[in-house]
Write a structure and sequence with these properties.
The chain is built from six helices and seven strands; from the N terminus they run H-H-E-E-E-E-E-E-E-H-H-H-H. The chain has 173 residues and is of the alpha+beta class. 35% of the residues lie in helices and 11% in strands. A three-stranded antiparallel β-sheet has the order 1-2-5, with helices on one face. It has a two-stranded antiparallel ribbon with strand order 3-4. A two-stranded antiparallel ribbon has the order 6-7. A hairpin with a 2-residue loop joins strand 6 and strand 7. It folds into two domains: 84 residues, no CATH class; 62 residues, no CATH class.
């Protein structure tokens, strides 16, 4: 799903680096969040290095999730979400984090077809958003002139985050 030609692979992190990231994230959380995390995962993060890729596990109150291989991400940021840390959720809890947007690459946000997602594409999206503010986006109106990037039927914050994250992205021409 994340194997696209438009960006570089995120360098693999060591288990120690992953643990440090988790510790930093937990340091800023409430005591209840820390307690819940420790109850579910203990001292072992739900993501670990496995050779040239990663393995992830999840938590569900009714059963344990086995460790499963996850792809090495090329897209490591989307609207402030660090995908490396969130990637296990795409596999183990897709109802919490839907990563199907990653398969779309740079093509959809390149609204002007120039080969690069840039300020012109943002301006085109802003104009389409103003025109189609209360419209239902569909194939008839070309998904609100392309502004409904994820084609959910509305122009929303996810589309805005997708456009923001895609700035500078180059399509394969």
């Amino acid at each position: 799903m994340l194997v696209l030609p438009d960006t570089e692979f995120e360098p693999l992190r060591s288990d120690e680096e992953i643990l440090t990231i988790v510790q930093i994230e937990l340091a800023g959380k409430s005591d209840s969040v820390k307690k819940r995390y420790l109850e579910h995962y203990g001292e072992t993060p739900p993501l670990r290095r496995s050779g040239d890729s990663y393995e992830a596990t999840g938590y569900h109150p009714d059963h344990d999730w086995p460790w499963a291989e996850v792809p090495t991400p090329k897209h490591h940021q989307l609207g402030g979400i660090r995908l490396l840390e969130a990637l296990p959720l795409c596999v183990t809890a897709p109802h919490l984090l839907d990563c199907t947007w990653a398969a779309l690459g740079c093509t959809r946000p390149d609204l002007d077809g120039s080969g690069t997602v840039d300020a012109a594409d943002q301006a085109a999206m802003d104009a389409a958003t103003a025109i189609h503010a209360n419209a239902a986006c569909n194939s008839t109106n070309n998904w609100c002139d392309g502004a409904d990037l994820d084609r959910t039927g509305t122009i929303d914050d996810t589309d805005a985050a997708f456009m923001a994250a895609a700035q500078g992205c180059r399509t394969a021409l």
